[in-house]
Amino acid sequence: MTDTLINRRDLDFLLYDVMDTASLSERERFNEHSRETFDAVIETADRMAREKFAPHNSQADKEEPRFVNGQVEMLPEVKEAFKAYAEAGFIAGRFDYDLGGMQLPESVMAACNGFFTAANPGTAGYPFLTTAAANLIKVFGSEEQKAKYLPPMLDGRYTGTMALTEPHAGSSLSDIRTTASPTDDGHYLIKGAKIYISGGEQSISDNIVHLVLAKIKGAPPGVKGISLFIVPKFLTDDQGDVTGRNGVALAGLIHKLGYRGTTSTALSFGDDAPCHGYLVGEAHQGLKYMFQMMNEARLGVGFGAAVIGYRGYLHSLEYAKDRLQGRKPSDPDPTKPPVPIIEHADVRRMLLAQKAYVEGGLALCLYGARLVDDQNSHPDATAREEAGKLLDLLTPVMKAWPSEYGPKANDLAIQVYGGAGYTREYPVEQCWRDNRLNPIHEGTNGIQALDLLGRKIWQDRSHGLQLMMQRLQVDLEAATTSRCQQWALSLSETLQRAVKVTQDLGAALQKESPDRVLANASCYLHLFGHISVAWMWLRQANVAEARLAEPGITEADRNFLEGKLQAAQYFFHWELPTVAQDIVLLQNRDDTCLEMRGEWF
Ligand SMILES: Cc1cc2nc3c(=O)[nH]c(=O)nc-3n(C[C@H](O)[C@H](O)[C@H](O)COP(=O)(O)OP(=O)(O)OC[C@H]3O[C@@H](n4cnc5c(N)ncnc54)[C@H](O)[C@@H]3O)c2cc1C
Fold first, then answer.
1. Which of 151, 292, 323, 439 lies in the 20 to 30 Å Cα band around 351?
2. What average pLDDT score do residues 512-530 get?
3. Active-site residues: which are they?
4. Ligand 1 atom 50: the closest Cα is on which residue?
5. What angle do CA 576, 582, 583 make, to 5 degrees?
6. Atom of ligand 1 nearest to the CA of 446
7. How many CB atoms lie within 10 A of CB 566?
């Protein structure tokens, strides 16, 4: 088993050579930082993840949190790790200095968080939710709410949750039934039930700040009637002293396939005692506010899926170098010693596929983090606006593609281990179980597909799509060596076919039933995702070729860069061509699934 969480050489390559993250320190917001401070924070994250998060990853999976007398009992190591994370300043990492933050770029924070998720996704869930909930309060909360909740959330005394899902309403949030009734003193009483709420109860923090979606009585139907409330577990006064227990109660813990270290809770609001909720922003605007947290979480889910995939890849790579089995077809002599399985082409296929998926997924998510930075801190207003549009377009892809291909990578890691991979003695089965959540939560990948084809592509007269095409064109033209040019050509041809099919789908949406046009939205998401990741591989390949041409390159560097190019080749030869099938199905608006009837199954 390797204790490497993410290959630092690879991360440096992506962050600095491909994404030019060091240049962010030239921006006003980050001008107290430099490559050295970025590296120091990343180094701390890597070390802390190995020392505080990784050691209890397997134990937290085996000894799930337990529901005892209305409370949660869980491993003490989870609390210790959370505390260490908070004390090192990671919860507040990207927040302003005057909030106690480090004003670090999202690109750097995302990289740091990659180590924690790779080490222990269950424990990492608590601080990540807290950061995102605090960010929502920072942007949309009142001054009073900010003063009351931000300091204890950012220093780790309080944690945060997002409470959207109800037993009968998961994908379809317009149907939520939790209600909010106004009181005379300006706040609300919340009544209802939520399910699957991550971190909804635990034994690691003094208080929990639930961000709850509910409908104020008399609100318009559907999503336009949803409001957002802060519902603290403990009520506090202005000094932060506890004045009482709020009427939000743990109704039960949910037992899961993976991610077992993060509690999944069923919560009841206002059943046994009044549950006080405090409106965030304006009434009926709640889903809009919550979308900030959801979009952030969607990028986080994609990132998490990529790094859990990465972890499995590194484990299986090490195993493949050690495990001796069989001989080459060209030299089957049984008197000779067996070879390490990495010598077999089929094992290399499985390793290369993993490498292509996880390093491609990681590149895509780091690109997303960079867009967040550009949206928030680029000195040019147009560049900020364009980054926001591109981010909006790509968010469903950045959530869905890594969460589809991260678990696929973990599946291949199990296969590389053979029988050992199927046992609980080795870590790859847990990687797969943990990662299998990612296509489901934060909007299933089916919902992401509908979001992409039904909305994001056409939004703002497809401006986001045009921006992506322009940027892609720059990288296509930057291909200078013959192999990169060959890959650029195949990407360019695929792109032309994708543009044509997109135009046809757009026209079809004007005159045909959306049921038919959107029936194969998942194919569109696959097509779009593969083009996006091929783009990321071309960017990596262009840089790798340039580095290889530099004089005095070390052998280790040469090996690393050749590995990048081989993985790029894998993606262009083995993966990109698979979109041909999507294009045919989309072009024909294939109605096989749409026309299948329930009674025919
Ligand atoms: C471990 C875990 C942690 C979670 N954490 C949280 C949390 O912290 N907070 C929170 O609020 N929620 C949380 N969730 C809930 C999660 O977001 C939902 O499970 C998810 O959105 C799907 O909702 P659902 O389970 O009700 O499935 P459903 O909505 O019933 O969907 C079932 C299937 O139908 C498909 N489907 C549904 N509607 C459509 C449609 N219109 N068109 C096409 N296909 C459709 C879906 O893609 C899916 O395949 C968590 C879930 C899990 C499992």
1. 439
2. 97
3. 442
4. 196
5. 95
6. 47
7. 16
Evaluate whether 104 touches 42 at the Cβ level (below 8 Å). Answer: no
- Is residue 144 packed enough to be buried (19+ CB in 10 Å), middle (13-18) or exposed (0-12)? exposed
Please say whether the beta carbons of 396 and 525 come within 8 A.
yes
Q: Which residue has the tokens 């317009």?
A: 174
Residue 447 CA, ligand 1 centroid: distance in Å: 9
pLDDT in tens, 398-448: 999 999 999 999 999 999 999 999 999 999 999 999 999 999 999 999 999
Measured by CA distance, the residue closest to atom 44 of ligand 1 is 446
> In the block, which residue shows the tokens 């004089």?
551
SS3 414: helix
Q: Which atom of ligand 1 is nearest to the CA of 213?
A: 11
3-state class of 330 per DSSP? coil
- Amino acid, res. 543: V
- Only one residue has tokens 């044509």, namely 500
Please report the sign of the dihedral spanned by the C-alpha atoms of residue 56, residue 57, residue 58, residue 59.
Answer: positive
Q: 399-438 burial by CB neighbour count: b if 16+ within 10 A, else e?
A: bbbbbbbbbbbbbbbbbbbeeebeeeebbbbbbbbbbbbb
Residues 539/363, Cβ–Cβ less than 8 Å: yes
Q: Calculate the CA 393 to chain-centre distance.
A: 15
8 Å CB contact between 577 and 569: no
Contact between 379 and 27 under an 8 Å Cβ cutoff? The reply is yes
3-state SS record for 38-63: HHHHHHHHHHHHHHHHHHHHHHHHHC
The DSSP output letter for 324 is B
Residue 566 CB partners (closer than 8 Å, separation 6+): 352
The dihedral through the CA atoms of 483, 486, 491, 492 has a sign that is positive
CB-CB contact of 190 with 277 (8 Å) = yes
Determine the 3-state secondary structure of 169 from DSSP: strand
The answer to pTM > 0.90 is yes
d(CA 472, CA 491): 10
Residues with Cβ < 8 Å from 236, sequence gap 6 or more? 148, 207, 242, 243
Q: Which two tokens stand for residue 183?
A: 């009181």
